[in-house]
Write a structure and sequence with these properties.
The chain has one domain. The radius of gyration is 12 Å and the shape is globular. Strands 1-2-3-4-5 form a 5-stranded mixed beta sheet, with helices on one face. By secondary structure, it is of the alpha/beta class.
Length: 85
């Protein structure tokens, strides 16, 4: 497994964990860095993990790559985090 820090905005990172074929991203507030890394590394996005502190950082799910609809993995009940997005 490989862990990458993808720079996002001026002062943030998006964590990407990948096994050489598929990737998971954590709290992706900006889709562009994730899409860029996917293209550069040729990794399919397997899931998006949204943590309780960052339910507002799910920008990648709103702008998926064509043909890519990864599942969301929420670290809290659906009713709790969906009301925050």
């Amino acid at each position: 497994m490989n862990l990458l820090a993808l720079p996002a905005f001026a002062d943030n990172v998006i964590w990407m964990l990948h096994d050489g074929a598929r990737a998971v991203v954590v709290d992706p507030a900006d889709a562009a860095p994730v899409h860029s890394a996917q293209g550069r590394l040729q990794r399919d996005l397997g899931a998006i993990l949204v943590t309780p502190r960052h339910a507002d950082r799910a920008g990648t799910a709103d702008a998926p790559r064509p043909g890519c609809r990864p599942p969301w993995l929420a670290a809290m009940p659906d009713s709790e985090w969906k009301s925050r997005v």
